[in-house]
Amino acid sequence: MAKILIVYYERTGSTEAMARAIAAGVKDGGGEPVVKRVEDTSIEDLKAADGVVFGSPTYYGLPAPRMLALFEESVRCHGDLAGKVGGAFAASANVGGGNETTVMALIQAMLVHGFVVPGSPAGDHFGPVSVGAPDRRVQSQCGEYGKRIAALAAKLHG
Ligand SMILES: Cc1cc2nc3c(=O)[nH]c(=O)nc-3n(C[C@H](O)[C@H](O)[C@H](O)COP(=O)(O)O)c2cc1C
């Protein structure tokens, strides 16, 4: 069973709610989700997972500094994460407030590590995004995303 770590930062709950919805999708897709706050996530946690999904609120169009700090720390395992499945999601306050640029910044960093990141021809193309707390549309996008990540991880690592 593919182990999928979902690591997130949040201050007001929206990103955490998305993380839980993605975890439910991972489970539905036959994977084993592990949900952790970024503050509780170690380099060993990243190395132990078959796939890692990173989630952050949008801060000035970018991931929160605490999430970027994990990437900075992750230089210690540079090379060890190559070939794992990766994904990203983000919350913002506004439509056009930078949630997709936040997702893309996370994906950019993941590609440097060599993560394999799936896109989607329908719905949220780059990864789930939410304006404020996830509504039904976002919950559904998160669930589908979790399933897709679990299926790809099973294909690559099962
Ligand atoms: C320092 C700071 C910067 C922010 N920058 C943006 C921004 O550039 N665009 C935006 O739409 N929302 C911005 N927000 C709002 C958050 O991204 C938004 O409230 C998000 O849903 C919070 O997620 P959380 O509930 O998981 O903490 C910012 C909030 C803070 C505290």
Architecture overview:
Helix content is 42%, strand content 22%. With 158 residues, the chain is α/β, with parallel strands linked by helices. It has a single domain, classed as 3-Layer(aba) Sandwich (Rossmann fold). Strands 1, 2, 3, 4, 5 and 6 form a 6-stranded mixed β-sheet that branches. The longest helix is centred in the last third of the chain and has 22 residues, at 136-157. It is globular. The structure holds flavin mononucleotide (FMN). Residues 10-15, 57-61, 91-94, 97-98, 132 line the site of flavin mononucleotide (FMN).
Fraction in beta strands: 15-25%
Radius of gyration, whole Å: 14 Å
Instruction: Provide the CATH topology.
Output: Rossmann fold
pLDDT < 50 runs, ≥5 residues = none
CATH superfamily: Flavodoxin domain
Chart the SSEs and their pairings.
Blueprint: E1 3-8, H1 14-28, E2 32-37, H2 43-48, E3 51-59, E4 62-63, H3 65-73, E5 85-92, H4 99-113, E6 129-131, H5 136-157
Parallel strand pairs: 1-2, 1-3, 3-5, 5-6
Antiparallel strand pairs: 3-4
The protein binds flavin mononucleotide (FMN).
Flavin mononucleotide (FMN) binds near residues 14 and 98.
Describe the structure concisely.
The chain is α/β, with parallel strands linked by helices. It is 42% helix and 22% strand.
Features:
globular; 42% helix; binds flavin mononucleotide; alpha/beta; Rossmann fold; 158 residues; 22% strand; 6-stranded mixed sheet
